[in-house]
Amino acid sequence: MDNPISNGLEMKQMRISLMVVLFSLSILQFATISAVAQVQNPAGWPSSSTSDARLSGAEPGAGWIIGTIQATDRRDVSDATVELRGAKLQHMTTRSAPDGSFQITNVPTGEYEVIAQQGILQSRTEVFVNSGANWVTLTFQSQGTAADRSQAAVSAAQLAVPANAKRELLKAQDAVNKGKWDVANRYLQKALTLWPKYAEALVLRSLIERDQHFSGLAIVDAEKAVQFDPNYGRAYVVLGATYTDVNRWDDAVRTLDHGIAVAPTYWQGYYEMSRVLLLKGDSAAALRQAEKASTMAPTEFPTLHLIKGYAYLGLKNPAAARAELETYVKLRPNGKPATKAREIISQLSASSDRHEGGDAATTPSGRESTTKADDPR
Questions:
Q1: Residue 316: beta bridge partners?
Q2: CA atoms of 124 and 92, how far apart (whole Å)
Q3: What is the rounded CA–CA span in Å between residue 263 and residue 30?
Q4: For residues 273 and 244, what is the distance between their CA atoms, to the nearest angstrom?
Q5: Residue ranges of the chain with pLDDT lower than 70?
Q6: Burial class (CB in 10 A: 0-12, 13-18, 19+), 122
Q7: 4-65+145-373 architecture in CATH?
């Protein structure tokens, strides 16, 4: 028979591990390399290893183009044909992802034209490719209902951002990609001086402020972005994530719910929703959101396995929890979350060994209900 006191202490240790890990599941783990992606690369928030791979995979003197295709009503344009034309290469083509993002690698430095086409809709822009990342945005004119056109008119204010402000934002994104926060902030300040209602610039600055633990400032900037462009879904996601950081969980849920409605193809919204729901103790809802994010994320995102692992603990499914946590540790073996995950795996393994052939009243599944009840709220 198990010692009830020992079982209680073990569950308390799991609960503490859950709290520590969850509060470290913010943008801080990956914003250092990928805050740029929040604004212009919705295909994902790459880790530092992703950027290193891009650099190592590029030919000498070559860069890559990361772009987004949106309609004027802020809807992401998926499955559009993207063509790159320039004197230094034969035509290169790719297609946009479900969230409207695309990427073209190994592009020699020089001037190019990027053309996106879907049916009768077409958008084009010019870009000078430098070594490293180069960002572009293409916009299709919406052809929807009267309600769609009304929404587009609101978003059209964002399309009026002057070209010099856009250039400053591009410089800031490049600085963030290189980890130069101070430089990025200077460019962002210039962009916002030129266009104070620049939602994309405010969102990027909010991400930097989150990374530097200035949650209050991050909330102010994200709230301004939502105010200035109510149809910019990613601003709601960043704002909701920051609300989660400061334990404003109900505000986070309401904000993220609206962000998902505005930008339903932006998978990070579902991820952030799963994080706050787990903190609120709603394991079933957290698992559904994490599963949704997993189906939309373009590449393996380890933290989703961590979220699902703890959700399964709350749902009294230790076998599934252990499988998800082991997957997370395999994909991301270093760091405090991985250490805590290993502790939970060890506790689950020891519990399984003790209960093998034991009393059904003290099965691991039964004990998991204690973890669910003690989830932080």
A1: none
A2: 14
A3: 21
A4: 9
A5: 1-61, 73-74, 90, 142-158, 298, 353-377
A6: middle
A7: Alpha Horseshoe (1.25)
> Looking at residue 21, what is its pLDDT?
45
- Give the tokens for residue 25: 């599941």
Element (H, E) at 84: strand 81-86
CB 282 within 8 A of CB 302: no
Token look-up 């520590």 returns 20
Q: Where in the chain is the domain with CATH 2.60.40.1120?
A: 66-74+76-141
Answer CATH for 66-74+76-141 from 3.10.20.310, 2.60.40.1120, 3.20.20.80, 3.40.50.880: 2.60.40.1120
Q: Under a CB-based contact definition with an 8 Å cutoff, are residues 31 and 47 in contact?
A: no
List strands edge to edge, sheet with 121-129.
89-95, 81-86, 110-118, 121-129
Calpha distance 179→33 (Å, rounded): 7
Q: Which residues pair with 132 in a beta bridge?
A: 63
> Do the strands 62-71 and 132-140 form a parallel or antiparallel pair, or are they unpaired?
parallel
The conformation of residue 144, written as its DSSP 8-state character, comes to -
CB contact at 8 A, 100 and 77 = yes
Cα dihedral angle (141, 94, 234, 216), rounded to 10 degrees? -130
Res 31: pLDDT: 33
Residue 356 is classified by DSSP as T
Contacts of 281 (CB under 8 A, 6+ apart): 314, 372, 375, 376, 377
Burial of 175 (0-12, 13-18, 19+ CB in 10 A): buried
The alpha-helical segments, DSSP class H, found in the chain are 4-22, 31-40, 48-57, 146-159, 163-177, 181-194, 199-211, 215-228, 233-245, 249-262, 267-279, 283-296, 302-314, 318-331, 336-355, 364-373
Q: Which residue has the tokens 């690698």?
A: 105
Q: How confident is the model at residue 2, as a pLDDT? A: 44
